[in-house]
């Protein structure tokens, strides 16, 4: 992966007169817009569109000087772990490239939640004052116009300079970001961002970001083709037992394969790519069934919990009117990679919008950093967390790993609902992993989470009564 992306160099730069004039004009436009006026001049269209979203739709406070904490849940599943691992390695490499130039590299998930930052230590410390650090939310909805959040709203890289940021507390920063998108669904699953404080970014940064995103998306594309091969195989097996219209759909509701009856019903030519299996995402047909996307998402959320699941929905098909369609998941390595859709059948759970909110969320993940890579951990893998000032170390079944989240309080907030409890000002313990309890000569309490290794976690006197009660000792 690293070989696909050239080294990133940010040369020091001093804004010229034209740049200073432009920045001053944008600052005046921002001041007017933030107080309720509408502006049309001095602001780039993509930035102005973002300002409108921030002011009128998201109602972000323009006086904000720090990003808020991100929600404790995560919407990415284990199938994206490899993507975040590659992004972490890419972020670390770029961070080393820009360190001497005062740059900072950040990687987020698809919600704008920062997973890791790399680069110049002093600039990172300054960034942390604005909460530009792991576990904070940099979506437009949370923090206004910025390279990470705004990249989800536009195609390609976006640069946000000084007062183009919606929040006044970020006006000393220049940043550029790009979204990494799923080639099947088109949705953003991550972003990568370069920032500098009090200095402009080089013109080569957007090009580097575009190349970096393309490299990551090559892996996403490779996996999408693999998913399609599995879907075609499942379709061929099902086709022998099906007499009615049958299609195989990808995760975005597009047609990978279809039999002759389905091609005719959907008014697709007999030699359409779906007739032989559309492995390439760009070859897949989008059926004219408006509600199909929602139905596929609903079906995938149900099937993620039960691979044997099936359900049906009433779909409006132009040639036939409203008719039932039964969906069954296509899985690979316990992941839903597509759907078989048999028209005219009505089997399994009925689709209803009211039931969509009941879908069980994907398993949570805790982000760690080891050897310049992001490590995604299930909470059950973590025995305890130990704080060294604002740095948190996780003792896990995969060894000792640095937590991407800074501050034991933030880690505590995320893990409490998974059976973790604060036992000391420096320690957080997974009570489900406590194997032994030791008593000291003066009544001290120590928890043993792995009897095979000499590790004990002290319990402070203040926390001891609650821990005894929770453990039943």
TrEMBL record:
GO molecular-function terms, A-Z: DNA binding; phosphorelay response regulator activity
Region (Disordered): 1-20
UniProt cross-references to Gene3D superfamilies, sorted A to Z: 3.30.450.40, LytTr DNA-binding domain
HTH LytTR-type domain location: 367-473
Highest taxon listed in the record's lineage: Bacteria
Pfam family for this entry, one: LytTR
Name of the protein this chain belongs to: Transcriptional regulator, LytTR family
Source organism: Saccharopolyspora flava
